Amino acid sequence: MDRHIVENAIDEQLKSRKKKVLNRNAISALFGAFSDPLGALGKIFVGRDDAIDEEKQKIIQDVILEMLCKIDDAISQAAKELNTQGFILQGLIETCAHGADSVVGVHVAENSGPVTMQAGTHIRTIATASKNVTGLKIGGQIEKE
């Protein structure tokens, strides 16, 4: 998404909500006029900008939340497709650990789907002061940490 498109969308949302925000601010000032008449006048004249800025921040947060949800959906969809299509191992896969109980460089679980290992793939697992070291593990369930 282009930054200008997002900024324009925020401005459009703000324009459509501006009247409602200003009315809400005025009603709030009206109810506050009985206890603090001077503060109510300030809220009507100076508080307008504050109310609009506050609404703009709410819109920005909504846009950010929507974008994060779309990113999460895309990642979830990619992971789902990856599980059905399988995956490819290629290049150098290196794991380094010190003092671990168990170290596994690559674990291909039984529900991973088809796995292709390209020619020239190297799995290097380096572990010092570790009890159990495995470079490539095929099968079994992925252990929870």
Gap between N and C termini: 36 Å
Q: Helical stretch count? A: 3
Q: Provide mean pLDDT, rounded.
A: 79
Q: Name the overall outline.
A: elongated
The sequence of SSEs as H and E is HHHEEEEEE
For the secondary structure, the number of strands is 6
What helical percentage do the residues reach?
Answer: 40-55%
- Major sheet: order of its strands? 1-4
Biggest sheet descriptor: 2 strands, parallel
Poorly predicted tracts of residues: none
Rg for CA atoms: 28 Å
Structural class: alpha/beta
User: Beta-strand level of the residues, as a percent range?
Assistant: 15-25%
How would you describe this protein?
The chain is an alpha/beta fold and 145 residues long. It is built from 3 helices and 6 strands. The strands form 3 sheets. A two-stranded parallel ribbon has the order 1-4. Helix 1 runs antiparallel to helix 2 and helix 1 crosses helix 3 (47-85). The model has no long low-confidence stretch (mean pLDDT 79).
